[in-house]
Amino acid sequence: MHLAAIALPSQAKADPSAAWAVNFEAVRQLGEAVLACSPHAVLVFAGSSESYGASFNTVAGAVNEGTALRPLTPYAATKAAADVALGQMRNDGLNAVRFRAFNHTGPGQSPDYVVASFAAQIAQIIAGDHPPVIRVGNLDAMRDFVDVRDVVRGYRLALETELDPVSEGVFNLASGTPRSIRSILNTLIDIAGVDIAIETDPAKLRKNDVPRTWGDANRARTELGWVPYLAFEQTLVDTLSSAGAKISGCT
């Protein structure tokens, strides 16, 4: 199970050489080593839906695994390159399973990511450690979110499931429901039950932000038996609770 990566897009953009070394070259070398030394072992790779990039702007509905990879950022490009490399090695006999997980969040996530950032700021406001103002990026963007616990279950299923030999071994993990960032923030504020002002922070705006991401996970359902079990509202409740527990020292 390969999870290691420079996973924060802003960090990959700040140091693209490191991102290529970690997110692509290390994966390529790992794939070659597994193919040479343990070709029957299953290698599960945590890729990213960001690899689809510009395709989100041209596909009318949800993207599936056959949609072109058109990455727009250094992070997305490195993940797409690793995805393609492992796909080629699969043709050579590597038992690689590649995932393109859509935005995932949940309790314990770093506040570097949008939902966890909202939760952390709201928890600070509830605790009286921060004025009742939350700083945000683009609230009009729509994202297909799935709970991290459902994503990890998908990874586990890949390790436990013997795929059909004709399977391409690549899967989207998505809820199939795009949600606006604004609606997510409003739901978190409603859960918290506090009055909060909202301010735009230019530093949180991404230049190559696509308006909407939307994933088709039918292949994962068919071949792995995977479906997202956790309701997104529960994900938000748990994420906010986790952020509050961290502030109170209960984690």
Report on this structure:
The structure is a single chain. Strand 1, helix 3 (74-91) and strand 2 form a beta-alpha-beta unit. The protein has 251 residues and is α/β, with parallel strands linked by helices. The protein has one domain (9-248): Rossmann fold (3-Layer(aba) Sandwich). The protein has a 3-stranded parallel beta sheet with strand order 1-2-7, sandwiched between helices. Helices cover 43% and strands 14% of the residues. The model has no long low-confidence stretch (mean pLDDT 96).
Number of domains: 1
Number of DSSP strand runs: 9
Q: State the helical fraction.
A: 40-55%
Q: How far from one another are the termini?
A: 26 Å
Please give the radius of gyration in angstroms.
19 Å
Q: Structural class given helices, strands, pairing?
A: alpha/beta
CATH superfamily: NAD(P)-binding Rossmann-like Domain
Strand content: 5-15%
What do the pLDDT scores average to? 96
The CATH top-level class label: Alpha Beta
CATH architecture: 3-Layer(aba) Sandwich
Order of helices and strands: HHEHEEHEEEHEEHEHH
Net shape: globular
Q: In CATH terms, what is the fold-level topology?
A: Rossmann fold
Count of DSSP helices?
A: 8
- Give unreliable regions as ranges: none
> How would you write the strand order of the largest sheet?
1-2-7
The major β-sheet equals: 3 strands, parallel
Domain NAD(P)-binding: 1-236
Protein name: Putative GDP-6-deoxy-D-lyxo-4-hexulose reductase
